Amino acid sequence: MKPVLSPFQRAAECSNKKLKLGESLSWKETSVEPAPVCKVFGRIDEENTPDSFCKVLCTSELEVISIPSRVLPWFYGGCPESINLKMSTACTWIVDLKQQDGNVLMDKGWPEFVKAHDLKVGYLLTFKKLDTKSLQVLIFGYNCCEKVIWCSGYHPSLGQQYQSQLY
């Protein structure tokens, strides 16, 4: 069993890994086991699972990002084909989910989300469950402040470039 690490310890672990030119970390190399009991602000929901989680982005998570196994009970009756990522600006992105080696990954649509929001290694993302198909996403940059990107109604070039993922 891997040790339980805080997001900031995990980021340090990612940044300390020596990489050769052209090499990247796989998500398996940076995954850590969840804490035995995961409390969120002192509450545990009716299914004894957290209602939110956070990720400090590592190199590999700019292409695909995993959802912690501890929150899989959110998806009653199995994993949906896609999930809605709702931003604080009222934008919603559709990202496909896939199961691989017992993990659920945000796959198709995630790289476009990363590019549109100019996400970088070390940024902190928080994901909060809204329902079984939607997550509220907050992005925090290096300055620890929320990063806000306006959707197509406020940012025309973003809407044209990412029309298929925004609605």
TrEMBL record:
<keyword id="KW-0539">Nucleus</keyword>
<dbReference type="InterPro" id="IPR050655">
    <property type="entry name" value="Plant_B3_domain"/>
</dbReference>
<protein>
    <recommendedName>
        <fullName>TF-B3 domain-containing protein</fullName>
    </recommendedName>
</protein>
<dbReference type="GO" id="GO:0003677">
    <property type="term" value="F:DNA binding"/>
</dbReference>
<keyword id="KW-0238">DNA-binding</keyword>
<keyword id="KW-0804">Transcription</keyword>
<feature type="domain" description="TF-B3">
    <location>
        <begin position="83"/>
        <end position="143"/>
    </location>
</feature>
<keyword id="KW-0805">Transcription regulation</keyword>
<dbReference type="GO" id="GO:0005634">
    <property type="term" value="C:nucleus"/>
</dbReference>
<dbReference type="InterPro" id="IPR003340">
    <property type="entry name" value="B3_DNA-bd"/>
</dbReference>
<dbReference type="Pfam" id="PF02362">
    <property type="entry name" value="B3"/>
</dbReference>
<dbReference type="InterPro" id="IPR015300">
    <property type="entry name" value="DNA-bd_pseudobarrel_sf"/>
</dbReference>
